[in-house]
Amino acid sequence: MSTPRLQAFESADTVNRVVALLLRFPEIHSVRSNPADATLTLSFAVRKRLDRVQARAFGERLSEYVRTFLDLRGDVPAKIAVTCDRDAAVSFVHVTRDAATFSREELELVVALFAESFRAILVRDHADVPVDDDPAARDELVDVALDALRDPSQRQRLVGFREEQRVLVYFVHARKRAKARARS
Question: At 37, is the pLDDT very low, low, confident or very high (cuts 50, 70, 90)?
Fold first, then answer.
């Protein structure tokens, strides 16, 4: 049984890893872990209102790339979904994947596909963050962050996002989610 102090340390460690992940990939707008259904959701911001046809076509392309990548690895995704929220000038594209088969290599593929597809209109954080010269260390950091997000002992939903060149991370407690659903 874990003590509250140990849980606080594990939570702080997970938060630090998510911050590092978002700093490593400035193209990612937010990341959410959903322990209830063992999924991760990555969100990307695009400076354009994508219409339904554009959003659907990109979602199909991304799904095809991911399925092909996983097929080459011998994996089958339990969940892959691409959705889009639009407002007047910005679209938020959300990629939801099962945490079990999601990897650093797939994350790199997804980020590269967004960068190639949306180029200058993909919102990137341009904060002055020192870049580590050791690619192996950067890869390990991403692997450790993904492991923390898929940790089966993690009971709280975690959300990390960018706001005004800062990365914010918080945990959503189950009771608060239930209260929010009851108000809806």
Answer: very high
Mean pLDDT of all residues in 160-183: 71
Whole-number Å distance between alpha carbons of 106 and 103? 5
Going by the DSSP 8-state scheme, the letter that residue 130 receives in this structure is P
Q: What backbone torsions phi and psi does residue 49 show, to the nearest 5 degrees?
A: -85, 105
Lookup result for tokens 């959701």: 41
Is residue 84 within 8 A of residue 59, CB to CB? The reply is yes
Q: What is the pTM of this model?
A: 0.85
Question: How large a percentage of the chain has pLDDT more than 70?
Answer: 85
Contact 122, 29 (CB under 8 A): no
Residue 166, φ and ψ in degrees, nearest 5: -125, 155
Rounded Cα–Cα distance for residues 30 and 17 (Å): 14
Instruction: Domain ranges for the chain, please list them.
Output: 4-183
